[in-house]
Amino acid sequence: MDPIIARFTALSTRPDAELDLVEGALEISRLFQDGVDEAWVHDRLDALGDEVRCELTDDPDLAAQVEALNRVLFGRPGFAGNRDDFNDPRNSFVDQVLERRLGIPISLSLVYVEVARRAGVAAWGVGFPGHFLVKLGQGGRTLVVDPFNQGVVLSADDLDARLAGIFGDHRLSVRAHPSLLRAATPREILVRMLRNLKAVYLGRRESTQALRALCAILALVPDLPEELRDRGLIYRELGHHQAALDDLRRFTALSDDGPAIAAVAAVIDELAERPMWVH
Q: For the domain bounded by 3-181, which CATH number is listed?
């Protein structure tokens, strides 16, 4: 087994409360790059956290905390969403995001959360539909911000407008469905980052890299049907027929998607008729 994939398997055995998000993000960076400097990443996050602390007055309210975070992270110039090349894989590598100050919603949210925590500000990632966000604060006083858009604070009406853009007017609201703003677990964040990378590499026709992302996802959360199907199809494309057959059969055992199962069944029949060579 690839030693980095083995480390994802080791991470998967930890409960979410013991899963370190930065450690997992660094493993994602190592999966696709050589020479990732772990110490520099921690030092940079610590330094940004210290800058935020210096910006805070005694006993600041939540709005002042957000303003301090936004001044440090988005001023002078600072971090920004990479709108010109959203699908650049480097947008998902925490070391590259910190160095280039460019990212996508989930990677910029990860940086925002980790800097906030180092500054003593309670913060969590939120897997909001369509666009990852950050929630700050505790108890009855919280704020939701969008690090991809310079840390803008989003009201309930703003969030509902985003939901309407995805699902249609008046279909969903955050007031009626507060679970839409629940804190994402570290495992969920890492899987979402890897799924983004899978999609990027498939779009670039880099099947081997997409396969690495899929193996990491399934190491963290085994038996995800869609990922088993996608990995099986890539194994087939790359000529690993027995591995493809194993994944696709497992997919049909777990999935409840009838049309997808029917499509995969034809591939399984084709693979089952091929001779499987043992080397």
A: 3.10.620
